[in-house]
Amino acid sequence: SSRTIALLSQLEKINLDSVAGESDHARYVTSKILHLVQSQEKTRKEMTSKGSTGIEVILSTLEVKFFNFCGYGFIAVLHFIIMKCGGRRASVLVTKGGTQILLQLLLTASKDSPPNEELMVLLHTLLAKIGPKDKKIGVKARINGALNISLNLVKHNLQNHRLVLPCLQVLRVYSTNSVNAVSLGKNGVVELMFKIIGPFSKRNTSLMKVALDTLAALLKSKTNARRAVDRGYVQVLLTIYVDWHRHDSRHRYMLIRKGVLQCIKSVTNIKLGRKAFIDANGMKILYNTSQECLAVRTLDPLVNTSSLIMRKCFPKNRLPLPTIKSAFHFQLPVIPASGPVAQLYNLPPDVDDVVDESDDNDDVETESEIETEIDDDKDQHFKNDDIETDINKLKPRQELGRPIEELKMYEQFFSELSENFQEWDLVSKEPKPLVPDANLSGPIVVPTASVE
């Protein structure tokens, strides 16, 4: 009944037929659909309305054939619909299997030499938009072999910010999967991120923000965090943070400063990262910058994140503190001549008495295997054996604070708890008979009709 439905019907027929010259017809239909989608709001609603098969027809066309002839046009149609219609349309595209098809198209397009830049921008923008809607996009990208395509594009096009930005957005989505983060780290993505981020500059701040978010997600992996520490990147992050803090006097780039702090927070999750942070004078740097941010309420996120980092990295001691680190000295009443307590009191003042037993010295291969198992277990609903299910064990035991003999002195104040009260019969002037109840521990009174 409309021009759009007629064009989609023609496209379905083209998908089923194999006729010479069909590529020209497909190109013509594609151009008409793209024109209608770009110019008319009504067409976009028809394509994405409930019960419409518009997106399904386009995806099936991209999956079956005509990629070389009209694939760019159809990807442009999907891109325009998603960017104009919002997140709900992205969810529709995911439920129709669009993620798998777009990843396959990305793999096919990457084989061209050189790849089509405009097509790569559209594909990565679409994947970055629908990625948060698809929880399995990281696994799908790894299975399809599309994981390193975006990374290679960034490596070879560092100065092409128009292409690098959507690629970094896709890498940020991939990095939420721990196995992908380890795999990308082995291929040099951490070093690549530090080539993009840098000192204060008002140019390409959006690219800087996405790169920091990607780096923070990558550094959540202990393998990548250890690699960053070994290359001295903790000192680099602190230097970058101080530089942005000094130059951002109007506080317009608070999100970038917070992104740097998130990277520091991720890398200090391991013992080596905390040690590198202390050695780089990080405690003093974050304390001084936080003091300068206290007067501005909009900078509270920076102060909160800095406080979390400093609390995590500050040396830990047990109480009572027998060293000069404490302003108060809590002397134990009795200190044994030997044993762990005596050893703590005999420690020199500059030694922490709490041993950091973080498991950050495991082999990279072992950690990768553990992260793979954790990633697979997220898809399964398993029973937690640590949860107690015995009701009798869960009931708290009520124990008297004093013996029963001592409590008998209070009987005179609570006579209703010890006296045997009975109801009297008004006719016979005698107590009514008591009938025991099997469900109660004591007797109950059987009621009788009252006599006037």
Question: Can you give a write-up of this model?
Answer:
It is built from 24 helices and 2 strands. A hairpin with a 6-residue loop joins strand 1 (about 435) and strand 2 (about 445). The longest helix is centred in the N-terminal third of the chain and has 19 residues, at about 65-85. It has helices at about 5-15, 20-40, 40-50, 55-65, 65-85, 85-95, 100-110, 115-130, 135-145, 145-155, 160-175, 180-185, 190-195, 205-220, 220-230, 235-245, 255-265, 270-280, 280-295, 300-315, 340-345, 365-375, 390-395, 405; strands spanning about 435, 445. It is an all-alpha fold. Among the domains are: about 1-15 and about 25-95, no CATH class; about 115-175, no CATH class; about 185-315, Leucine-rich Repeat Variant (Alpha Horseshoe), CATH 1.25.10.10. It holds the Pfam family TPR_CCP1_N. It comes from Sinosuthora webbiana. One of its GO terms (molecular function) is carboxypeptidase activity. Keywords: Carboxypeptidase, Hydrolase, Protease.
CATH architecture type of the domain at 184-316: Alpha Horseshoe
Q: What distance separates the N and C termini?
A: 89 Å
Q: How would you characterize the largest beta sheet?
A: 2 strands, antiparallel
How large is the share of residues in beta strands? under 5%
Integer-rounded radius of gyration = 35 Å
Order of helices and strands: HHHHHHHHHHHHHHHHHHHHHHHHEE
Name the CATH homologous superfamily of the domain at 184-316.
Answer: Leucine-rich Repeat Variant
Parts with pLDDT < 50 across at least 5 consecutive residues = 373-386, 437-452
Mean pLDDT: 77
CATH class of the domain at 184-316: Mainly Alpha
Looking at the structure, what is the overall shape? flat
Strand arrangement in the largest pleated sheet: 1-2
Helix content: 55-70%
Instruction: State the total count of DSSP E strands.
Output: 2
